[in-house]
Structure prediction request, 254 residues.
Amino acid sequence: MRRTGIILAGALVLAADAFVLVMAAVNRSGSPTATMELTELELRLMRPQRESTALFLRLAWEPAWGRHKFEDGPGWFDRAKLEGIGYNCRLSLTDSAAPAHYRAMPAKEVFAVLEYDPASAVELGSDRSSWSRLRAMDAGRDFALLRKAYPDTGRFLIVPSLARLRYEQKWDPNTRGFADGAYLRGVITELLVSAISVPPSERGVLGGLGQTSDEYLATQEGRKRGPRYSVVLHYGRNHEPWVGSCRLLAPAQQ
Prediction:
């Protein structure tokens, strides 16, 4: 009986591995749905796991969590956009139950449009010189409609993500209460596939860099020198990414 269980467990593992390989092959079949060359600012080298030769990159984008601030309005992710992805926003914002009602709403799966703008880089050495140049600028539930609206596959990535509704109120320190003018806005909180494996053929390019990207870009040297590498990233039929190639970059001009 015990031997049978071991055999069944092994068969399940093999079947799972085969399924992953088949889905990866399907994802990469045909032409990529998007191809973009990004730098270390957008694809961050992560710390390898112990006793593992595998390397992973994390797709970084703005605004990063924690950089949100109260503004005078919702920006592009407004009430109409929230309703378009399936949120019910009919309860009046002046209703006393509105804060608890809206803040209890769960996240929704969407496609986020990330625009890559390398010209948005700021002066080397500044605090923002280490920020990603991928910016979330639209979201929706229909990939085909979004791709039709943003056809440039070298500029716009359309990626599976999680979005959440936020009920925004501005705190007034003078009255120690919330000011008038609450509004609803949406935020992209997570990319569903953000960790991307570096293939064995490209590990030699990145494996000797030592510091992770977050460690390196937090240093004065990192802010002045700029990104150490670039990566050609492809997206496939299942909206999943893979690394095509990597190359080291010369220091940026000071």
